[in-house]
Specification:
Blueprint: E1 2-3, H1 7-17, E2 28-29, H2 32-39, E3 46-49, H3 58-68, E4 73-78, H4 83-92, E5 96-99, H5 104-115, E6 120-121, H6 123-134, H7 139-143, H8 152-162, H9 167-174, H10 178-192, H11 197-206
Parallel strand pairs: 1-2, 1-3, 3-4, 4-5, 5-6
Length: 216
């Protein structure tokens, strides 16, 4: 099963994998709840899951899949290379993590590995993790996945959210598009595990994220 909020990605993956030996494509879902419903009636060995999705993000979906269908292997297939998201996805139960920029050979290797019960991190993801571990400034984050770190841009946007700026106002102030602002907002909510602005601000205050000291 392929879970991605872009139908074009699902169709593209089906076309890419349809002729691969040993792969039988079952279905695709554009939202987490849809995927969970399908898994109740469909025999699936491997789920390829994106992280950013409406309603229920890929981390939450993975946690639910491993709870309700422990025999299903989840392989994160995403554009996000943030170490904290990698950690949280693996903590949720994902058997592997690869980037959408990966090649078809590595993708097939990842699918085969997790289908056989193994673990797989793409070469790019391994480099990211190693860089984090050996970076003295980020060593604590590398060994404590629950410590949240925001990028400088995410921190800027968080400060403006706390000042009740709208997406349009944030975009105008930072000279970026509203779509880019929305993407950063989604990432901030995912990283902090919050669902509302009130919850986000409370979390940010409790964890000193508004002090400017938690940026990369």
């Amino acid at each position: 099963m392929i879970i991605d909020d872009h139908r074009l990605i699902i169709d593209g993956m089906k076309a890419l994998l349809s002729n691969m030996e040993g792969v039988e494509l079952i279905t695709g879902a554009t939202a987490g709840y849809e995927a969970l419903r399908l898994l109740d009636t469909t025999n699936v060995d491997v789920v390829l899951a994106d992280i950013n999705m409406p309603g229920m993000n890929g981390i939450e979906v993975t946690r639910r899949i491993k709870s309700d269908h422990p025999g299903v292997a989840v392989l994160a297939l995403t554009m996000h290379d943030d170490p904290s998201l990698i950690n949280r996805m693996i903590e949720a139960g994902a058997s592997g993590y690869i980037l959408k920029s990966t090649g078809i050979d590595e993708l097939m290797e990842a699918i085969e590995t997790v289908a056989a019960g193994g673990k797989f991190l793409s070469r790019d993801v391994q480099k990211i993790i190693m860089q984090r571990i050996y970076n003295a400034n980020d060593a604590i984050t590398g060994i404590q996945p629950n410590v949240i770190r925001l990028t400088s841009r995410e921190s800027e946007i968080l400060q403006l959210i706390a000042r009740e700026f709208s997406n349009g106002q944030i975009a105008e102030k930072l000279f970026i598009s509203e779509r880019t602002v929305e993407t950063h907002r989604k990432n901030i909510f995912i990283k902090t595990g919050t669902k509302t602005v009130v919850g986000l601000i409370k979390y940010a205050i409790e964890n000193d994220l508004l002090s400017g000291n938690q940026t990369l």
